[in-house]
Amino acid sequence: MDAQVVYDLLGENAWYYILGTFSVLWVLVWLYKDSLEVENLGEKYVFVTGCDSGFGNLLCKKLDRKGFRVLAGCLTEKGADDLRRAASPKLKTVLLDVTSLDSIQKAMEWTKKEVGEKGLWGIVNNAGRALPMGPSEWMRIEDYQCTLKVNMEGLIAMTTTFLPLIKKARGRIVNVASVLGRVAANGGGYCISKFAVESFSDCLRRDINYFGVNVCIIEPGFFKTAVTSLGPLERELHRLWDQLSPEVKASYGDKYLDKYIKVQRLIMNAVCDTDLTKVTNCMEHAVSAVYPRTRYSAGWDAKLLWIPLSYMPSFVVDLGLKLVLPRPSKSV
């Protein structure tokens, strides 16, 4: 019986029903698989970086309440003390500067003693910085480097150093990128570093999939954290402007800095979400789900604006950003 005969027998509407039923069943199976959690959480160790505040701090508390053995890397003693007081005695902290290979190595040796033969179930590379951020021409090479050293080099160094412990547990690597790792909307090192995180994570996932290790990428939209605070952002913009030569300043015009700051205020106030759990819920799922996702988009602006925009032709993105950003009042 050929396809035409089957089509004639069932009729056009029957095929719609079959397709609809298949789609519903596929969604139900996906939702069921997505809801499955790994067992024996109390025996699994998860290392989180950047835990003094923000996403990392909140995630540690969530994982601690869930039963994980949380190992928190904090930059400062105060951050470590505050986190310990807010969590159970199971949560342990270690001082960690991801820009220092010596600090990373010491943290790995400490972790190795903590986890023993179990290995490390997960590492969440959350530590990061955003500033300085502004027009690319305003940046010096050291302005790029200070961000790349944390967001790119630090993340790669943490991952490669801790990888043997993760392979032992056949665990998870969770790297925090950004929607700005898909759409380059700002000058400075932030977008560059987050594009690098996306690329490194994709390469790593394909290289180590044979070892049963999952690599997940978190792509948050804009959230109200220290990274998006307007005060430091505006101070950095003034610093960058002040270091420009008179010729470069003249090419932008005297009012450009004020216009640029107004646009930044408008964007941050309009799109920054205060609900940080939208991000930490994604991180939690990545370390606790039986079938973690490869990518997590966190925040409505990520889902409805930035991710769709990343699939658009470049000229569409260019035009959109051109309409938002101020125009220099005088060209060279």
Automatic annotation (TrEMBL):
Question: Keywords in UniProt for this one?
Answer: Membrane, Oxidoreductase, Transmembrane, Transmembrane helix
Q: Does the keyword Endoplasmic reticulum apply?
A: no
**What PROSITE patterns does the record tag this protein with?**
ADH_SHORT
GO BP field: retinoid metabolic process; steroid metabolic process
Regions that span the bilayer: 14-32
Q: Name one GO molecular function term.
A: all-trans-retinol dehydrogenase (NAD+) activity
Record-linked Pfam families: adh_short
Q: Which PANTHER family match?
A: RETINOL DEHYDROGENASE 5, SHORT-CHAIN DEHYDROGENASE/REDUCTASE FAMILY 9C
The family annotation for this protein states:
Belongs to the short-chain dehydrogenases/reductases (SDR) family.
What this protein is called in its record is: Retinol dehydrogenase 5 (11-cis/9-cis)
Which source organism?
Neogobius melanostomus (round goby)
